[in-house]
Amino acid sequence: MTNFDQLISDQFCAFDADYLTQKAAFEAQFEPLQERLIAIQKTGNSMAASDQKMVECKWLLLYTADWNTLTGKLADFEKSLADHDQDWASQQVESDGSWGPCYDQWFLKVDAMIDAVNTLADAGDAPKYPFLFLEPIATPQKMVAWLDSQKTSQIYADGLDRRDALGAVTATLSQMCFKSEIRDYFKAHVKGFDLTDDYIATYKNWLDAWQDDQTGYWGGWFATKSDGVLKSPDLSLTFHNISYQHGKVDLWTEIFATTLAIRDDAYPFGWKHNGDFNNHNNYDVTKIFDLGWSQVDMTSQKAASADIAKIVNWCLTKSMTPDGGFIDDPTFYNSVGAAYYYGVSFLDQAQYFGTDKPFWADAPFADGPALCCKIQKKIKSEGLDDDEAKAAMEKLVDACGNCT
């Protein structure tokens, strides 16, 4: 199987011979700023504007070789850290109906919007303004044209890896089209965007054609000078396509085989980050296995069970503190709350907190309910109140009740 991490690095080096040196230098500038932001967020301040600036800097660092733009963005990010009154940056923008006013990249505004819509839908509140900013994908024809334009990267020619933009927009579209409460919300409450049955069917057809019949996976495609177009097996993009379609996809045997085969490879083309497991990816993998469990044979199930046991043990012994906290990894997560959200989500998906037998194990876990309560108490003691920490708490309460 192609080493896509190496392929991408090589392509960036073909675009910019000084790429690796430049990237390392900018990483050294970025990391202390991110650490300062995290320290402020630990006080309970979400720092919405700075957080958006940080996310865009990280995207520029990981998916582009646009050093001039990154230079300016880092300076802007650093300046923003002095202002702790940033609630305005979490609000919908009147002029175009978007969220994420500190983002320049359109796809990041799309990503921010779907998070806001999930919150609004839960509360039963309509958005204040029409979604005019969705004009680039406002019709089935525009949507397909945009997706086709992002599906294949030519990094050696333009220094841009389109994978992140493609993933953000397809994850959003999948929620809009297949997540019933979000689909109904769009049809009932959103103005400036018409989510028709034809739009949904067109998107479904595009997704089906995108799935690789060899691996069962979805992922960005990479044009090369010598080997044509290579299709990557992307864990995150595959998870979103399977999850939001509630497992109603084809090629489950291939999906299980690929998922098991990439266990020790680096994210997004494997489970690991910086050489070790990660609760975000652990969650994705476990849900993929859960949704396809009845579609594969016992041999595949046994192999998957063994790997789930491995990552549950890692979560409990390596990613957590004895008092129920989750150890943040700023090289992967954008906030402290995110580390809690994905740690909780993984254990919940593995059915660790419940009293019933998990889908992958022989018996429930005796210490599960107590751990659930311990994590609740830790979140409260840390004063975490961002959206992801709140979502983690909701999952814990659903799993074992309110432990206060």
Walkthrough of the structure:
A three-stranded mixed sheet has the order 1-2-3. Strand 2 and strand 3 (229-231) form a beta hairpin. With 404 residues, the chain is mainly alpha-helical. The termini are far apart. It has helices at 4-15, 19-41, 48-63, 67-80, 106-123, 140-151, 155-158, 163-178, 180-189, 197-210, 235-244, 252-261, 279-292, 298-318, 336-349, 368-382, 387-400; strands spanning 152-153, 221-223, 229-231. The model has no long low-confidence stretch (mean pLDDT 96).
What ranges have pLDDT less than 50 throughout 5 or more consecutive residues?
A: none
Shape: globular
Q: How would you classify the helix and strand content by structural class?
A: mainly alpha
Adjacency order of strands in the biggest sheet = 1-2-3
Task: Summarize model confidence as the mean pLDDT.
Answer: 96
What portion of residues belong to β-strands?
under 5%
Report the order of strands and helices: HHHHHHEHHHHEEHHHHHHH
SSE blueprint:
Layout: H1 4-15, H2 19-41, H3 48-63, H4 67-80, H5 106-123, H6 140-151, E1 152-153, H7 155-158, H8 163-178, H9 180-189, H10 197-210, E2 221-223, E3 229-231, H11 235-244, H12 252-261, H13 279-292, H14 298-318, H15 336-349, H16 368-382, H17 387-400
Parallel strand pairs: 1-2
Antiparallel strand pairs: 2-3
Quick gist of this model?
The chain is an all-alpha fold. 59% of the residues lie in helices and 2% in strands.
Descriptive keywords:
single chain; 404 residues; mainly alpha; 3-stranded mixed beta sheet; 17 helices; 59% helix
